[in-house]
Amino acid sequence: MSTWGVRKVTIAGMAVALVGQVLFSLAPAVLYLHIGRVLVGVGVAASFLGFVTVTKNWFRPEEAATMMGLSIAVGVLGATLGQVSEKPRRTPSQSRQDGEWLTVAVWRVAPCASSEPAVCHC
Fold it and tell me: Please, what's the b/e burial string for 19-54 (b: 16 or more CB within 10 A of its CB; e: otherwise)?
């Protein structure tokens, strides 16, 4: 974190997660599903470390704890909602569409990590 900086680590993590999500949503075989999930996990972990660093630097200790707890709660909610596509009654094409929508959402939100306000169209 101290070598590359928070912004570069976070953006790199988001890029790795994005590649993993694309691979997962377009996977032709189970092996690619697993590789995609690993890439998403690694990318999100790197991005979360960036968040923790920024939170530690920007907030007082008692506020930082609240923000980290809120972040974890939102992450768990996202993971829970992400399991919707794995319901047995859904067809593989419906699950793939869910993954593609998630990929589009990440592409839409990713520019907001930029320091340039004009880049963010959220």
Answer: bbbbbbbebeeeeeeebbeebbeebbebbbebbbbe
